[in-house]
Amino acid sequence: MASGYTGRSHACCWHRGALLTLTRDQELWGMALWVEKHHGDAGGEFIASKIDQLNRAGAQDGGRLWQNVARRYEQLVERRTYS
User: How many C-beta atoms lie closer than 10 Å to residue 16's C-beta?
Assistant: First the structure.
């Protein structure tokens, strides 16, 4: 998953020989899950760093993308806390 904004409403990828089409929401949830898997409890800091880095570079669309990921990541953390 790219860190930038593609402007597409969905993403396509190949999985076991079949073309999968993901909605933007599914793509964002996938990114949030990736952050949780690879950064664990430090995921919030990782995402904040990405947003800051992109905004400083003038990539506001990328910053907004990661803000959307942050909202989903926060939901994952909440669910994990209450489980």
Answer: 5
